[in-house]
Amino acid sequence: MVSTLPEGLDELRSRGIKLVSIQLGLDPALRATAPWLLGGVKSTSYAVNMAAEAEAKRRGADDAVFLGSGDVVLEGPVTNVWWRLDDVLYTPALELGILAGVTRATLVEEAAAAGYEVREAELPLEHMAGAEEAFTSSSVREVMPVVELDGRAVGAGAPGPAAQELQKALRRAATR
């Protein structure tokens, strides 16, 4: 499928987005092993994802991040989620049943060249909330800095260096 990109992505990227957490209430292990939940499948109904985006807007945010039981960070409605502490980038592990995004895979590869170690793990929201910076990734939105999570600033409350460096790396990778 080919279509035009939504307007305003560069403006959002320059200011950063606000996220709210939305509890799915599922055990991450169940989500990863229950085939009827279709975790990581992109070709089924987006109803829950669109409802989550609408709830985020209702709560004054730009997007959402899904949580499993125990407040484990999973993914956004149409994005993968990342955060940085020092030179380590954290992102939820694929074993949690999240979508193995093409952009996510590219960023995992590009991170080392940018000087970052990537740790894929099962981590709680409080770990992400205490990050120096956070961002989301998707094929349409590319790398999108997160400046607020559940009404509180992430890091300095401004787009951080990893998001900016990886956005450039993603664009370079697209031209190769």
Poorly predicted segments: none
From the 3D structure, determine the CATH topology. Answer: D-amino Acid Aminotransferase, Chain A, domain 2
Number of helices: 6
Number of strands: 9
What class would the helix/strand composition place it in? alpha/beta
Distance between the termini: 21 Å
- Overall pLDDT, averaged? 89
Largest sheet properties: 9 strands, mixed
Q: Please, what is the oligomeric state?
A: single chain
What's the number of structural domains? 1
The CATH superfamily name is D-amino Acid Aminotransferase, subunit A, domain 2
Question: Could you walk me through the main structural features you see in this protein, from its secondary elements to its overall organization?
Answer:
It is a single chain. This protein is an alpha/beta fold and 176 residues long. It has one domain: D-amino Acid Aminotransferase, Chain A, domain 2, CATH 3.20.10. Helices cover 32% and strands 27% of the residues. It is built from 6 helices and 9 strands; from the N terminus they run αβααββββαβαβββα. Strands 1, 2, 3, 4, 5, 6, 7, 8 and 9 form a 9-stranded mixed beta sheet that branches. Strand 7 (133-138) and strand 8 (142-149) form a beta hairpin. Helix 4 packs across helix 6 (161-175). The longest helix has 15 residues, at 161-175. The chain is globular. The chain starts with 8 loop residues before the first helix and ends with a helix. The mean pLDDT is 89.
